[in-house]
Predict the 3D structure of the following.
Amino acid sequence: MIGKNSRKHLFPCIKDLVTSGLTLARFSREESKPSRQDITQYVAAWFKYIGVSSDECRDWMNGYCVDVLSAISSSSKSQIRHSTKSNIKYIFKSDVTFDCGCENNLFKACCEPSCPVYEEMSNKYKERMARKSDISYEPEPEPEDIGVGVERPPCKEKYSDQFEKAMEFALNSAKKGIAQKDIVTLLNDREYKTRTGKEWAYATLRAELRKHEDADISYKEKYRDRLEKAMEFVLNSAKKGVAQKDIVTLLNDREYKTRTGKKWTYAVLHVELKKHGNADISYKEKFRDQFEKAMEFALNRFKKGDAKKDIVTLLNDREYKTRTGKKWTYAVLQAELKRHNAGEHT
């Protein structure tokens, strides 16, 4: 799949993992061992690094994960395939890059200085370690004797930090177009917990994302009432012939805010007035179809010799509305007939 000219990209660590999977004998009993997901993302990042497409990566990885990595997983074959698909989608849509760590790789896979990316990866590892060493930590205070009366933190507080990280990950994944069911899989693969410390489910994620959307909406609703008052002031000022630039000044002097809570500018005012104009147009369009039927009816009755006042009565009896959605009157009918005759003679 990687082609004869690209065999140099088959790095020793990748060759080791692809051939043998995770060699558990290299780990002591006390050491934590990498998961199937860790290897999946590592190999997927390698595919991405050497320029293989996500589709080609997925086609190959499905078989590899089921045939080789299932040895270190308790999941069913269908679960492994689904998880593999989610992990590959995440790697290819994220900013994750291939970073092996050379001899210090997580999997204790083979590493050789003759590897074509050894120098690059070694420098990456050194830089990463240098960044970590720059971080200073305050010494934790000695724990006090805990008596019976001391309350433990609530369950929600216990998981609040990692829940925030989980939501940050979920929101970033959603922005990248990853499906919610795949985000759920990725959250559980990373062992993120919900706000109550449980595994993620589709319904839970959907509810949390909706809460986040509602928070955004409530921010806009906060300024909705003031916006309506501001627009009422704007429209009245515009009808009086006040220039738009002067209206902007008056709005800001009165501390009116836009629909997003910001100061007014000429451009924003222009957009809002345009929206209001379109609202007026849509209102008229709402009655256009029935108005045309009303006029067709009125013209037919007029041609048959019916008096205009009788036509008005018939129009209202049939609940026909004018072009602005109001009841018919003699004056309105006369104006519409006059307009129609003028149109025929132009």
In short: The longest helix spans residues 202-222.
